[in-house]
Amino acid sequence: MKLKVEFWRNNIIMQDNIFQACKDFKVEKLVSCLSTCVFPDKTTYPIDETMIHNGPPHSSNEGYAYAKRMVDMQNRLYKEQYGCNFTAVIPTNIFGPHDNYDLEDSHVIPGLIHKCYLAQQKGEPFTIMGSGKPLRQFIYSRDLARLMIWTLRSYPEADPIILSVDEADEVTIGDVAMAIVDAMNFTGAVEFDTSKADGQYKKTASNAKLRKYLPDFKFTPFKEAMRESVQWFVDNYSSGSERLEEVKYEKSDEGIAKITINRPDKRNAFTPRTVMEMSWCFTDARDDPRIGVIILTGEGPLAFCSGGDQSKRGKGGYVGEDNIPRLNVLDLQMQIRRLPKPVIAMVAGYAVGGGHILHMVCDLTIAADNAVFGQTGPKVGSFDAGYGSTHMARLVGQKKAREMWFLARLYDAQQALDMGLVNKVVPLQQLEQETLVWCREIMRNSPTALRLLKSALNAAEDGQAGIQQLGGDATLLFYMSEEGNEGRTSYLEKRPPDFSKFPRLP
Ligand SMILES: CC(C)(COP(=O)(O)OP(=O)(O)OC[C@H]1O[C@@H](n2cnc3c(N)ncnc32)[C@H](O)[C@@H]1OP(=O)(O)O)[C@@H](O)C(=O)NCCC(=O)NCCSC(=O)CCC(=O)c1ccccc1C(=O)O
After folding, report:
1. Any alpha helices (H) in 238-353, and if so which ranges?
2. What confidence score (pLDDT) does residue 119 get?
3. Which end of the chain is more exposed for a tag (fewer CB within 10 A), N or C?
4. Residue 314: CB partners within 8 Å, gap ≥ 6?
5. Pairing of strands 293-298, 303-305
6. 376 lines ligand 1 (CB under 6 A)
7. Which residues are bridge partners to 47 per DSSP?
8. What's 47's DSSP letter?
9. Which residue among 267, 274, 305, 391 has the greatest number of ligand 1 atoms within 8 angstroms of its CB, and so is best to mutate?
10. Distance between CA atoms of 424 and 433, rounded to whole angstroms?
11. Does the pLDDT value for residue 238 go beyond 70?
């Protein structure tokens, strides 16, 4: 690690602020997360919680390790002086879904999963650096989450606790590689590159203290945890999310997808690339049958989206890396409109220009109390004569729509609520929480009813295109019926169809 000073200062400043704020606001319990690198470089094994301060940490990460050691001291001092219930956990080698799977800077398991996947795709050998003999204890992220909740609720001490699998569950890097091979159904050659260094042979940690409190805690079997992690990686790799540069894309186990425009320095103004990336994400969310509702938002509290990036605007549209001018946000508006699942705009800060239109074409809008809405087009030489005008008039009425466009004023969240532009306004800190409440309520409802309602509401505005969407949904339902299938089956069986058993209802 190069930035030792930054690691030291940033961690110390964060810790000092958090501890003091938790004391001042009488927070009932604070659990800080340390890591095994706080332990001395030269030590005996297994390491345990009493050995943190027994000697210098490895020099490569001393800025970070010394700062983290201070957490242990802070926990004790705040308890002694103010009676605070603060403590720390020390997890060992976490892995699981949502990890950092980047090839350059990920930990061993996500890095190997990614390498094995690429080897599978390219038909190349799966190469593991080193002999594969070093031993490590790995904890599955879901197990760690359960233990963290237990720590919050029930662990009584200020002294830290190691959260690790048992010593008997230590595995070699070679075992890890073979578990990945199994989970991935990898059929190619597996090679160990012994010209590369192995790293420390073992770093065994004792979980005796954890076992004293929770003798019966059952860790997820390693191979099962590996299968879930590999499955998560494969599912999410195909979404193309690794290639996203201007947008963030997340999917939750609850069936909620979240697309975040990630250009906060430009108030989340969109370029042709931003729009393309959003479009990939919406396509993935539409095609993934586990997803039932999609959130569209902007990174940070200052803006949902400030419209087209004016610095990329050329003659004929916004110009990307290929030098071709585009107005591709119009296709994105259509995509959101036609997507057969509810899309919710989650708006903090500015939603202006083309960004305002994006929130309007979403099915619902939840706004933070700092949200600001409006069209700026006539001020910067632009306008949207499509949904930006006509759908707006449906939402707020003709007079108000003309006011918004002709004067190009900005409106606060309460004004937007009063004119029917948004569904709810909440304090900024509650924005995500409230949006998730709406998403979860939607997830409990019939997906087919929601789909048909969306296309019916669109059809009333969208003319023949709207009827086509509603008509497509009717065909989908018919294809799912026995009557529809009788037509197909009779054709394949080379017999006349028998529709006589289907009722001709009034
Ligand atoms: C959004 C603001 C009101 C925020 O103000 P403030 O908080 O004071 O921040 P700033 O200091 O102004 O901005 C910080 C930083 O971001 C840059 N930036 C902000 N917005 C844009 C933008 N749209 N393009 C490029 N850059 C932007 C800003 O320059 C600053 O950068 P520095 O380097 O730090 O200087 C305020 O920022 C603002 O008013 N922004 C402009 C809003 C705007 O006019 N947007 C364009 C409207 S036109 C449009 O969106 C058309 C879109 C389109 O493609 C289209 C075309 C044809 C038909 C339909 C459409 C359609 O979208 O439907």
Report:
1. 272-287, 329-338
2. 95
3. C
4. 325
5. unpaired
6. yes
7. 205
8. B
9. 267
10. 13
11. no
Is the CB of 490 within 6 Å of ligand 1? no
User: Ligand 1: distance of its center to the CA of 354 in Å?
Assistant: 9
Pairwise CA distance, residues 390 & 383, whole Å: 12
What average pLDDT does the chain have? Answer: 95
Closest C-alpha to ligand 1, atom 16: 266
The pLDDT value given to residue 457: 97
Q: Are 297 and 304 in contact (CB under 8 A)?
A: yes
User: Is residue 342 in contact with ligand 1, taking CB distance under 6 Å?
Assistant: no
Instruction: Report ipTM for this prediction.
Output: 0.97
- Tens of pLDDT, residues 438-459: 999 999 999 999 999 999 999 9
Q: Please state the length of the chain.
A: 506
Q: Strands 247-251, 256-261: parallel, antiparallel or unpaired by DSSP?
A: antiparallel
Q: How many CA atoms lie within 13 A of 96 on its CB side?
A: 16
Q: What contacts 24, CB < 8 A, 6 or more positions away?
A: none
- Residue 5, Cβ neighbours under 10 Å: how many? 9
- N-term to C-term CA, the chain: 76
Q: Is the CB of 307 under 6 A from ligand 1?
A: yes
Ligand 1 touching residue 388 (CB < 6 A): yes
Rounded (5°) CA angle 488-493-499: 50
- The mean pLDDT of 421-446, rounded to a whole number, is 98
pLDDT per residue over 85-94, tens digit each?
999 999 999 9
pLDDT at 321 exceeding the cut of 90: no
CB distance 352 to ligand 1 below 6 Å: yes
Provide CB contacts within 8 A for 281, sequence distance 6+: 239, 241, 244, 247, 249, 257, 259
- Tell me, in angstroms, the distance from the centre of ligand 1 to residue 310's CA: 7
**How far apart (Å, rounded) are the C-alpha atoms in residues 393 and 403?**
10
